[in-house]
TrEMBL record:
Residue ranges annotated for the Cell wall elongation regulator TseB-like domain, each copy included: 52-82
Pfam families hit by this protein: TseB
Keyword Nucleotide-binding: no
Keywords: Membrane, Transmembrane, Transmembrane helix
Entry keyword Kinase: no
Transmembrane segments: 16-35
Protein's recorded name: DUF5590 domain-containing protein
InterPro entries on file: Cystatin_sf (IPR046350), TseB-like_dom (IPR041401)
Length: 156
C-alpha cells in the first residue's frame, strides 16, 4: 500500500505583497490626479475671469479674484476701487464702485458685532437675491451684509 503524502498549501507571499502595493499605488496616484485636475479647473476659472474683466470693464490691473458660493457661484474680480461680478458663464452680473457701499472692514465689523465678537475667518464680495452682498464667515456661521445699505441681511 502506498503512503499518501500531504503537501502544505503554497501561498505566494511575494506576489500578494506586490499586488497590494500596486493596488494602493493606483489608488494613491488616482486620488492625486483628481485633486490636481480640480485645482487646475479653478485656476482656469480665475484666469478667465481676469481676462473677462479686462474685456468687459476695461480693467488694466487686477488686484484680486475671489469665488463667492451662495445660492449660485460667482467670481469677483477686484481692481482699484471697482469690482466686477461674473456668473459661472463668465457673464457680467454687476460692476460695483467699491466707494459707494460698505467696505470689507465695515462688513467684517458688522458681522463681528452680530457674532458677539467672534473672530472673522473670511469675507467675500458676491451677489445674492439680486443684491451685491458681502459674505462674512465667523466660525461655522455666514453673515450676509448688504453692500449698499450696510446692514445685516441674514445669518446662515
Amino acid at each position: 500500500m502506498k503512503k499518501i503524502v500531504y503537501l502544505e498549501p503554497y501561498f505566494p507571499k511575494g506576489q500578494f505583497i506586490l499586488g497590494i502595493f500596486v493596488v494602493l499605488s493606483l489608488i494613491c496616484f488616482s486620488s492625486l490626479y483628481l485633486i490636481d485636475l480640480g485645482t487646475k479647473t479653478q485656476d482656469v476659472r480665475l484666469a478667465n475671469a481676469q481676462l473677462r474683466a479686462q474685456e468687459l470693464a476695461g480693467f488694466t490691473e487686477v488686484d484680486a479674484v475671489e469665488i463667492f458660493n451662495g445660492q449660485n457661484s460667482y467670481t469677483t474680480v477686484f481692481a482699484k476701487d471697482r469690482a466686477l461680478i461674473l456668473n459661472t458663464q463668465q457673464e457680467q452680473v454687476a460692476l460695483v464702485d467699491l466707494t459707494q457701499g460698505a467696505s470689507r472692514q465695515e462688513a467684517e465689523a458688522l458681522a463681528a458685532e452680530a457674532a458677539g465678537g467672534a473672530p472673522i475667518q473670511a469675507s467675500r464680495l458676491g451677489y445674492d437675491q439680486d443684491k451685491v452682498v458681502w459674505e462674512v464667515r465667523s466660525g461655522t456661521n455666514y453673515y450676509l451684509i448688504d453692500f449698499k445699505d450696510k446692514k445685516l441681511i441674514r445669518k446662515e
